[in-house]
Design brief:
Layout lengths: L13 H14 L10 H9 L13 E3 L3 H10 L11 E3 L3 H14 L3 H26 L3 H12 L4 H5 L5 H22 L4 H15 L4 H14 L4 H24 L3 E3 L11 H21 L12 H22 L5 H21 L12 H18 L8 H40 L17 E4 L5 H13 L7 E4 L7 E7 L2 E6 L8 H4 L13 E4 L2 E9 L2 E9 L8 E7 L2 E4 L8 E3 L1
Parallel strand pairs: 4-5, 4-11
Antiparallel strand pairs: 1-2, 2-3, 6-7, 6-13, 7-10, 8-9, 9-10, 11-12
Helix pairs in contact: 1-5, 1-6, 2-17, 4-5, 5-6, 5-8, 6-15, 8-9, 8-10, 9-11, 10-11, 10-14, 12-13, 13-15, 13-16, 14-15, 15-16
Length: 583
């Protein structure tokens, strides 16, 4: 790569086409992954299946209707420990409308939805390329665009249909940022209303658009020319728009409450700040070092991810400082606000648990930071790759962002395809005539014993509904803990569940429904229609032993017990009184 040659691909406008081609090659295989997790929820809502959400608001999971939430717990699939006051509802009308359009055009065929998402991702790459060509048209901007296009952290944004809302929010908001720069840098008054329109449309796509507001603020703080008063006047329109959105959001009851995975920064600022102290470093591990932040779900790896993130941030800061003098003042001016924008845009996304899907907007500035180091190191080759520290650090970043990052796309595609291939064999024993009597199922209560994968119990009823299985009277998941379980039959109509290590209601999938701010202490009882749950033992960290009392003996034909056997979910008989099962 000769960064001084105008004939090379890493110059504008050629790099825009190169980046679009790379993005297309990497994203196109994602059309084979099919539907993933929340995609099933959206499909069933669009087909009229009982759920908290509606076709016009697919991202409403809890809140606003206590009785309806109660039925979702009594009948499933929400687990018994779900907080009655739980609120998980997000205002994304444009994203919901586009998903509804997908269903009307393509039905259950996921290919159309994936191609739709791919188009949004290519639009994001193209728009970022246009912005960089206008305001950072050097080798620095060219390489930053290419790094952004191939970033493996974007796999879940481009390859998960339900998560398309991030792109639907980011693309118009990025256009709004571009127009704000046109207004301020070139004094074009017509660009201001276009900027506000882009930002406003982005907000209808989802909360991800708030990250672009962070870049607008960062530009006025560190990038814009002019005095303080001029900058304050310039930021006022976007600030008022953002404030009006936040007020509307809260007044209409959107946001999160009671969940340990989702934290509302407005209603719970203390919890939000504490969560950010851990979640931001984990996200930095994905942003700087390409170590997937999704590894957060493995609780034992969280300290490692925090360490990797802080180490990566320190390394990047030192390398940027060493490379800084080799760039022009105008390049440094734009880098300042892009770096600050990346940092500020991390704050809205730490409202939920860390995942690479949250890094789309922060990686706009993050790609520029990495590109700055790589371009400076490449230029140093004429000096014998000096300083050596810069060259060595740049080598690490080049490995992660030019080799590992694009490899994450086919790796994640392969993993999800393999998981999808396992679904049908896993569900085959539940089909009519194999293990379940679908004619009797509407009058039966399904009790799901602990699974090796906690998501199985959550999504199986949705997968089976899509396969035509009638809705059972109830679907009760006893536990989503990933720890080893011991199940004891304590009476004709009672069971006891204990853990050999750890605590109930502490893993990520458990705290989605009830956060640590709302513990279930020893002696707490939860009454469901036909089942009473009692916390028998608990300490400050959570329950360790739980009792389940049913309204009839467990051999009653109104019950179906499902357990994991021979790599599949199958009907299993309850143990005899005094008997034990280990999971």
């Amino acid at each position: 790569m000769d960064t001084s040659s105008r004939g090379r691909w890493f110059t504008f406008p050629r790099v825009i086409w190169l980046s679009l081609l790379a993005a297309l090659v990497l994203t196109l295989p994602t059309i084979t992954v099919g539907h993933i997790s929340d995609d099933y929820i959206h499909l069933l809502i669009l087909e009229g299946w009982p759920a908290m959400g509606t076709p016009s608001n697919l991202f409403h999971f809890a809140g606003g209707d206590v009785e309806k939430l109660r039925r979702m717990v009594d009948e499933g699939p929400y687990p018994w420990w779900t907080l009655p006051e739980l609120e998980l509802t997000f205002w994304r009308p444009l994203s919901s409308a586009l998903a509804r359009g997908d269903y009307q055009l393509f039905g259950r065929n996921p290919v159309g939805g994936h191609l739709h998402s791919l188009a949004w991702y290519l639009g994001m790459v193209a728009l970022f390329g246009v912005l960089l060509r206008r305001f950072l048209p050097t080798a620095l901007g060219a390489l930053a665009l290419f790094l952004f296009a191939i970033d493996g952290a974007h796999f879940l944004v481009a390859g998960w249909i339900a998560n398309r809302n991030a792109l639907v929010a980011a693309v118009p908001a990025l256009f709004g940022l571009w127009m704000h720069l046109e207004w301020r840098e070139t004094r074009r008054p017509w660009a201001l209303p276009l900027s506000l329109a882009g930002l406003a449309v982005g907000l209808t796509g989802g909360e991800t658009a708030l990250g672009l507001f962070a870049y607008v603020l960062a530009y006025e703080l560190l990038g814009a020319r002019g005095g303080v008063k001029e900058r304050v006047r310039a930021i006022a329109p976007a600030a008022l728009l953002g404030l009006a959105y936040l007020v509307m959001y809260k007044l209409r009851g959107f946001g999160a409450y009671g969940s340990g995975s989702y934290v509302d920064p407005v209603s719970e600022p203390g919890r939000f700040l504490l969560a950010a102290l851990v979640r931001v470093p984990v996200l930095l591990s994905g942003l700087v070092m390409e170590v997937p932040a999704d590894l957060w779900l493995a609780a034992g790896l969280r300290p490692v991810l925090v360490g990797v993130g802080l180490l990566g941030l320190g390394l990047l800061a030192l390398l940027v400082r060493a490379a800084w003098p080799s760039f022009s003042e105008d390049e440094r001016r734009h880098c300042r606000w892009l770096f600050l924008g990346a940092a500020l845009s991390l704050l809205p996304v730490v409202a939920t648990f860390p995942s690479n899907r949250l890094l789309l907007v922060p990686s706009l500035g993050g790609s520029v930071a990495v590109a700055l180091v790589l371009v400076s190191a490449w230029r140093s080759r004429a000096r014998g790759w000096r300083p050596r520290g810069l060259a060595a650090g740049a080598g690490v970043l080049a490995l992660m962002h030019l080799v590992v990052a694009p490899l994450l796309w086919p790796a994640m595609t392969l993993v999800i395809r393999q998981l999808g291939a396992q679904v049908e064999p896993m569900l085959q024993p539940l089909h009519h005539g194999h293990g379940l009597d679908w004619k009797r199922l509407p009058q039966q209560r399904v009790v799901v014993l602990p699974m090796p994968n906690p998501t199985v119990g959550l999504y199986v009823p949705m997968l089976m509904a899509l396969r035509g299985m009638p809705k059972p009277l109830s679907w009760w998941q006893l536990s989503l803990s990933p720890e080893p379980h011991v199940l004891t039959r304590t009476g004709p109509a009672s069971l006891e569940l204990s853990l050999t290590q750890g605590h109930f209601l502490t893993s990520e999938f458990e705290v989605v429904f009830r956060g640590p701010s709302h513990p279930l202490p020893q002696g707490a009882r939860v009454e469901l229609k036909g089942m009473t749950v009692t916390v028998l033992d608990a300490d400050a960290e959570g329950p360790t032993r739980i009792g389940f009392e049913f309204d009839t003996p467990l051999e009653d034909p109104s019950f179906v017990f499902l357990g994991w056997k021979d790599g599949a979910l199958q009907p299993v008989p309850p143990p005899p009184v005094g008997g034990r099962l280990t999971f």
